[in-house]
Design goal:
This protein is mostly helical. The chain has 15 helices and 2 strands. It has one domain. Helix 5 packs parallel to helix 15. A two-stranded antiparallel sheet has the order 1-2.
């Protein structure tokens, strides 16, 4: 029996993805066109660039959807991808120019890409592959099955430890510094570790440690002062973000400029917004309005109701992705889907938290809406993974049901034959 995968496509994931992508193109045009016109450039320049990446993303989803899952479970393919990613992170950190106080962008002519963006989905793939292979050991030894090696390699075989790879890559991202993506990767990795099959108490312990560490860190900064923290090389760039977090109105011309204008934008929007394209803050008042603070502009133009509808679609998409993971019978498939859903949830939370002042701003973009071809491509690849997994799980269930029905029919026929034989023997015994 052959089942075409196109009949198993999960439209409850695909349609919200398409809606958000199209809305993202509209938002990119709305947030960039005024500035481009001001500089005498084509107002469609940014949206055309974003659209090209989206077309490439659709091709990537199609290609990934048609792949067999065994390709994703091939250790050689994954090792090669990890090796390339590590090389790109090293190049981005040590051989590129700073942009807004940070490294991370590799520019090749008209094309530029950010390796840290791609690490988010690669890390999910890597941890799912690693943890899925150890399911039997996890069932027997709990978390010790994932932590039996040393943290730092003392011999060549220790280089296979998942913690070593994860730590090196996260440190490379954090040292750029790109604390936004580093935070998403760390939190997603913690979720992956927690859903690997270990006891739920370890998730509670990790969550407590994160909350306590974050509280102590913010308390330390408030005590010693942002100026002191800014002297640390790695935190020099992000010191302004912590200063704005504590009081954005203290320095409106510098550290608090973005967050304060984000508040103004959301206040301008009210319930129904000023109308699409009518934002005031995007016209030079709110820097980088098309990236980190794009959702502030969305609220200003579409109001809380319009922004709420967009958030509802985003959360619906995340929920459908998480459900794919919950229903999966295969550990690898489940962890990939749950990891992708968690990554999206973390990114939304960190972005909304940053623009509203609930947490320090980390420069994390809003999924699908912010300008950035790399972000669109990474999110699309993640969606492609989930769509492939969902179709494969559906096909396996169909095959399993067909096999169960076949065995059931065979069993019924066998019982009927046995009943006939027993009846014949009873009749034969009576004649004797």
């Amino acid at each position: 029996m052959k089942i075409d995968k196109k009949h198993l496509l999960n439209y409850s994931i695909l349609i919200p993805y398409l809606i958000l992508s199209i809305v993202g193109l509209i938002v990119v045009y709305s947030t960039t066109s005024a500035t481009l016109i001001q500089y005498g450039l084509n107002p469609f320049k940014s949206v055309i660039n974003q659209g090209m990446f989206w077309i490439i993303s659709l091709l990537a989803i199609t290609f990934i959807y048609k792949l067999k899952l065994n390709f994703l479970k091939n250790s050689r393919v994954l090792s090669l991808v990890m090796l390339i990613e590590m090389g790109l992170l090293l190049i981005a950190r040590f051989f590129t120019k700073q942009v807004n106080g940070a490294h991370g962008w590799i520019v090749l002519g008209p094309i530029s890409f950010q390796p840290a963006e791609y690490l988010k989905i690669i890390m999910i793939w890597f941890l799912a592959f690693t943890f899925a292979k150890r399911q039997k050991l996890i069932e027997r030894y709990d978390y010790q099955a994932l932590t039996k090696r040393r943290w730092w390699p003392r011999q060549l075989s220790d280089l296979k430890d998942w913690r070593f790879y994860s730590l090196v890559m996260i440190l490379l991202v954090a040292s750029q510094p790109d604390l936004g993506n580093a935070t998403i990767i760390v939190l997603t990795s913690i979720v992956m570790f927690s859903i690997s099959g270990i006891g739920y108490r370890w998730f509670s312990a990790l969550l407590s440690v994160i909350v306590a560490t974050s509280t102590l860190f913010l308390g330390l900064i408030s005590l010693v002062g942002v100026e002191t923290i800014s002297k640390v090389p790695v935190f020099g760039y992000v010191a302004k973000r912590f200063s704005a977090f504590f009081n954005p109105f203290k320095d409106l011309t510098n550290s608090g400029h973005q967050l304060a204008n984000s508040y103004y934008a959301m206040s301008n929007g009210g319930w129904f917004g000023l109308g699409l394209g009518n934002s005031i803050e995007k016209k030079g008042y709110l820097p980088e309005a098309q990236t980190d603070f794009v959702f502030s502009i969305v609220i200003e133009e579409l109001g809380l109701i319009g922004a709420g509808l967009i958030l509802a679609i985003v959360f619906f998409l995340i929920l459908r992705i998480l459900l794919v993971g919950m229903k999966s019978n295969n550990a690898f498939n489940a962890m990939i889907s749950l990891g992708v859903g968690s990554m999206l949830l973390m990114q939304v939370f960190i972005n909304i938290g940053g623009i509203s002042g609930l947490i320090p701003s980390t420069g994390v973009t809003f999924p699908f809406l912010s300008q950035g071809g790399n972000s669109v491509l990474v999110l699309s690849v993640a969606i492609g993974f989930v769509l492939n997994i969902d179709a494969s799980e559906k096909r396996e269930r169909i095959f399993q049901e067909a096999e169960d029905n076949y065995h059931s029919r065979m069993s019924d026929e066998y019982m009927k034959e046995q009943a006939k034989i027993i009846k014949l023997r009873e009749e034969d015994d009576k004649e004797v």
